[in-house]
Amino acid sequence: MLNYINYIKKYLELEKNTLDKLNLEEINEAMNALKSARERSANIYIFGNGGSAATASHFVCDFNKGANLLGQPRFRFQCLSDNTPIITAISNDIAYEDIFVYQLNQILKKEDLIIAISGSGNSKNIVKALQYAKEIGTEIIGITGYSGGEVRKLADYHLHVPLDDMQIAEDIHMIFDHMIMKIFCYTE
Hints:
By secondary structure, this protein is α/β, with parallel strands linked by helices. The chain has a single domain (about 5-185), classed as Glucose-6-phosphate isomerase like protein, domain 1 (Rossmann fold). It has eight helices and five strands. The chain has a five-stranded parallel β-sheet, sandwiched between helices. α7 (about 150-155) links the parallel β4 (about 140-145) and β5 (about 155-160). α3 runs parallel beside α8. The radius of gyration is 17 Å and the shape is globular. The N and C termini lie far apart (about 50 Å).
């Protein structure tokens, strides 16, 4: 039997150290943007690629079900990464870099909110959708890792993991989801 304990300790230590480096003011600002979107019944469009698409889908479940309390305005999350037939049709007939912007075209409104999840912050299909949102004046929350890339530059609010490690970044992106949802459940 192999002993992985030292590797486990290193991974968890890196995760803990990274959590301590998060910008709490930025998280607070993003949470207020989410609260405002809920209060004005805005649509919240969320999307990502790969693991970030899975995280986006998880956000939708947690906020549309878990954070919707009786008597409170409801969150209106929609995940643009969830519909495989739409994504493959757009990819095949138009271009993969258009999978999100095409879905937003002519439905995105200024009062809506965009949440873009990207480990690197440089996925072309995400950047293109954010550029479109900027043209309309829609606010953007960027959830990133590494340097944050173009997504961090385009976003109005940031949930940024300051580390060049995709797995730790994705772990902490899920912590953002669960933490924010739980705080909304107990403070609203």
